[in-house]
Specification:
- The structure is a single chain.
- By secondary structure, the protein is of the alpha/beta class.
- It has one domain: Glycogen Phosphorylase B (Rossmann fold, 3-Layer(aba) Sandwich).
- About 45% of the residues lie in helices and about 20% in strands.
- It contains seven helices and seven strands, in the order E-H-E-H-E-H-E-H-E-H-E-H-E-H.
- Helix 3 packs across helix 4 and helix 4 packs parallel to helix 5.
- The chain is globular, with a radius of gyration of 15 Å.
């Protein structure tokens, strides 16, 4: 049986730290192949050497997707998202993953979600439901949730995600803050 290719998009230190156990579990799962896409802060020199940290953790970075980090106003933010969407779509077209997993409700997550939909790649959205009250993330969350083919969320967030989810998209519980959640979520992906 061929392995299922799971692309995972990460654009910040905080989300990478939460995704690390899941990335390990995908790497170790016999039925899954990890395709790690890094972008955003991982590649920006002003944010430190985050890419080296990812590689030091033993992960092969499949795609480095450089973006213009500086987005000082609304127009620049919109250009940032469209640039990200185009570059992520190109990489999805090259690598042809079976699924793209995105985390959260950031502009990079929105770009990844839109790229996956346009490239006909199954979109898996991990929704922590925590936007820290940020206006933009609150606005992006329903759009991302609406685009997803599958949702994974901590059980305390289940009700809110269920209200926003697209009709028919399966929803699974998995809390990345728990020690064995990565293995549990990898099994969900393998069985999907």
């Amino acid at each position: 049986m061929a392995t299922k290719r799971i692309a995972v998009l990460t654009g910040s230190r905080s989300e990478y730290d939460l995704l690390r156990s899941l990335l390990r579990a995908i790497n170790e799962h016999p039925d899954l192949t990890l395709q790690l896409f890094v972008t955003g802060c991982h590649l920006g020199p002003s944010f430190g050497d985050l890419l080296s940290d990812v590689e030091a953790d033993g992960f092969e970075v499949r795609r480095r997707i450089p973006l213009a980090i500086e987005a000082g106003n609304a127009v620049e933010e919109a250009c940032y998202v469209t640039d990200a969407m185009a570059k992520i779509a190109c990489n999805l077209a090259i690598d042809e993953p079976d699924m793209l997993l995105i985390y959260g409700h950031s502009p990079v997550a929105l770009a990844g979600a839109a790229a996956a939909v346009m490239c006909r790649v199954v979109l898996v959205h991990y929704s922590p439901l925590n936007t820290d009250g940020r206006w933009l993330q609150e606005k992006l969350r329903p759009a991302i949730v609406g685009l997803a083919d599958m949702h994974i969320t901590p059980s305390k967030a289940l009700a809110a995600v269920y209200e926003m989810r697209r009709q028919g998209a399966p929803i699974h519980c998995g809390d990345l803050s728990k020690p064995d959640a990565g293995k549990e979520i990898a099994e969900i992906l393998a069985d999907a």
